[in-house]
Design a protein that fits this description.
It is a single chain. The protein has 2 domains: 151 residues, no CATH class; 149 residues, no CATH class. 28% of the residues lie in helices and 39% in strands. Helix 8 packs across helix 9. The relative contact order is 0.18.
Length: 313
């Protein structure tokens, strides 16, 4: 089973915009900038990294230099701020905590945060309730698009048009003691799509996709998203993935998509990251590989993104 086989199972997509105040939002409003961003966090806080090239920031160079708010990383300028204490950002928090939601992209443009997410129509009522509630009390929150989803490939193509991407595939030994929740993926050869932006109790929330019906006794521990479309939700803990996530966040490296599957006696991970940060991401993998006593991380693919990757990913 390939990613393209399940890429449209989340059949709805929504893009919302939330008007904000603050340095980075005022900057994009003043100079008409559109900058890609990455939202991440845990139970305690939500952070946002905003990325720009030095050329993009020439329009406000003195203001930016005087602020001291941008950090240079892997040839790009990165601005980081905490956002979950902002009342207007609570809509993002609620959406990310809704079952079936996967967020692939966000960006800051003209004083607004644009946040895109895919979901299954079985949770459409919950999504509608969240959107209605926040739009009623905040006139700066808008729906830009809500409708059928063209799937993950279309979402990744859209990100690639804003910032070039690399596909990185790596594998590691499968250890049942340190890979909790992954047994169903192992047993039936399923694909798990990880929600990269938020973790709870150090667990990723994952959507499990199947191309065939699963025995009812096997899904007792899973949250059913859709029996008909064979989509389930389960928290997954893989110790090394948690460490990779932490280090990537520390180094301001977004992961716009991450899929996990089992092949033989190994866990195989496919991540999509910005090209400028791709070598730094690989460096994290290789450093962790050297430090682990239970076997190395194998780098299986490092390829500039184009649609041909879906023929093997």
């Amino acid at each position: 089973m390939l990613i393209k086989d399940i890429q449209a199972k989340l059949n709805r997509i929504c893009l919302i915009s939330v008007e904000q105040e603050g340095f980075i939002f005022n900057l994009t409003r003043r100079y008409g900038l559109s900058l890609p961003s990455f939202i991440y966090g845990d139970e305690e806080k939500i952070m946002i990294d905003v990325f720009a090239t030095e050329n993009q920031l020439k329009v406000g160079q003195k203001e930016i230099e005087d602020s001291g708010k941008f950090e240079k990383k892997y040839g790009m300028m990165v601005y980081t701020t905490r956002v979950n204490h902002l009342e207007k950002m609570k809509i993002v928090d609620e959406i990310l905590n809704t079952v079936s939601v996967i967020s692939n992209s966000s960006y800051v443009s003209n004083g607004k945060l644009f946040f895109q997410f895919r979901f299954h129509d079985s949770t459409a009522s919950k999504i509608s309730e969240i959107l209605s509630r926040f739009m009623e009390r905040d006139p700066g929150t808008d729906i830009e698009y809500l409708g059928p989803s063209s799937g993950i490939i279309s979402a990744i193509n859209s990100i690639n048009s804003m910032i070039p991407l690399h596909v990185i595939k790596y594998s590691m030994p499968f250890n049942k003691q340190t890979s909790l929740g992954a047994e169903i993926v192992d047993k039936y050869g399923l694909i798990a799509e990880m929600e990269n932006h938020r973790i709870k109790n150090n667990h990723f929330q994952a959507l499990i996709y199947s191309m065939r019906d699963l025995p009812k006794n096997e899904i007792s521990g899973l949250e059913v998203i859709s029996f008909d479309d064979r989509i389930f939700s389960v928290p997954i803990y893989v110790d090394i993935l948690s460490e990779i996530r932490k280090r990537a966040n520390d180094e301001k490296i977004p992961r716009f998509s991450m899929f996990v599957r089992k092949r033989g006696n190994k866990i195989e991970v496919t991540s999509i990251v910005p090209s400028p940060a791709s070598k730094e991401y690989v460096k994290i993998l290789l450093e962790l590989s050297k430090s682990r006593p239970d076997g190395s991380i194998d780098l299986d693919a490092y390829i500039k993104y184009d649609e041909s990757v879906w023929d093997w990913a």
